[in-house]
Amino acid sequence: MSSRRTALQSLAGAALAPGILRARRTPGDKPNLLFLWTDQQRAGTFAAYGNTRFHVPNMNRLAAESVIFDRCYVTQPVCTPSRSSIITGYWPHTNGCVHNNIRLSPERKALPELLEDSSYRTGYFGKWHLGDEVFPQHGFEEWAAIEDGIYQSFYSEGRDKNARSAYHHFLLRLGYQPDTPKGFSRGFAAKLPVEHSKPSFLAQEASRFILKNRAEPWLLYVNFLEPHTPFSSSLNDLHSEQEARLDENFEKIPEGGDCRWYDALRRRYHTSRSEGLDYRTPAGFQRAARNYAGLCSLVDQALGRILWSLEASGQAENTIVVYTSDHGEMMGAHGLLYKQVMYEEAIHVPLLLRAPFRNQKPMRVAQPVSHIDTIPTMLELLGRKDRIGQQGESMVPILTGKRKPSEVFLEWTNDGKADGAGPNARTVTTPDGWKLVLHDSGKSMLFHRPSDPQELHNLYGRPEHARKQKELTAQIESWQKRNNDTMPLPEA
Hints:
The chain is α/β, with parallel strands linked by helices.
């Protein structure tokens, strides 16, 4: 017991230690919410999604205690648009965040504002990427930002351009000196030891928040930058090539081809050296894959510390825990890197839900779900179903078999203001595994994933699938009408 208490003191501060092992609130009180999410983590990075090779014991343990959504999809596979939907419950084309670095309108409410319950203590720690990066907003009382650099260019008028993130000041206290005029670069942070990394800093801050507020209901969002680029950390060599092997569809372009823009992205990646990695050869991708696995492990150690603090606070049984990511990562699949495309590796993300106070047993959900449903789900679990009014719907009825499987939709919107954003796209994926991607210019894509899980056969335009293509196009058109989406579609 003493060693456990000592470790917790180092995590959260000695002043909090005397009462941390005694619950101050009991199950049945207002539940807490711990919303944990990463940036650029594809689904296949831990055991629940088929990967038993990555060293991520805490992700695996959390999954074993949770509802696992096998097929969770983002609303748009890039940071700001996806985050806008997770935070507000509205599609990017509705809330206005259709590409990166758009400020989330004050009129679009986040969960603390929607809940309207002043008894809750609220915190947002980590990457925000929805404007005014380092400033508390949208009902979050405590704020611990980790990003500086380019984000300062997008502060609102009147904001202090010299303001820096909490992580910046953390590094200053440790004696580090900024490597750029705007502060510490991501490349600088990637070279630091584990205990000074961004995930470790977030674990420290989250643990402090949880233990400090153990006598009150609270909402806490923790967003890790990792495993987003730069693909580098002190754990680069933790995984072997076999443990972090490349996908079966590495460098494979589907029979039938894909969008011209995707091909342009391929050419860009295959002629580049980025952040110390050479993507002109398979060896460069393999090195990136090992580093990416190390970043997942870096997040995992921070996750373990946060969950340990939650347990020590006595509130684990009364806390909703969510784990997901804002989008995935291609890592050489189909010859592509990063996100921005409608292949599975970029749009399919993990989603875990643990809610012990509901007596919710671990289970798997096979039907597809969307991040658009996140806010309605949280509101219902927090006992405020009356406040649900977003474009998604709660996933809670799925857990009781009261919500039938339905299609999931995704979007990609080019408003002409983002450089190199490619064509507009609308996508539908069905419970039985069909996926149609319609581009307003360039080739569209149709896949039958049960027979083609690697998406190597583009069936779009084939006469034998004309009926299915027309049916799925009609489903997208119907979704557009319901959600006031005016993007023109190609003829089926």
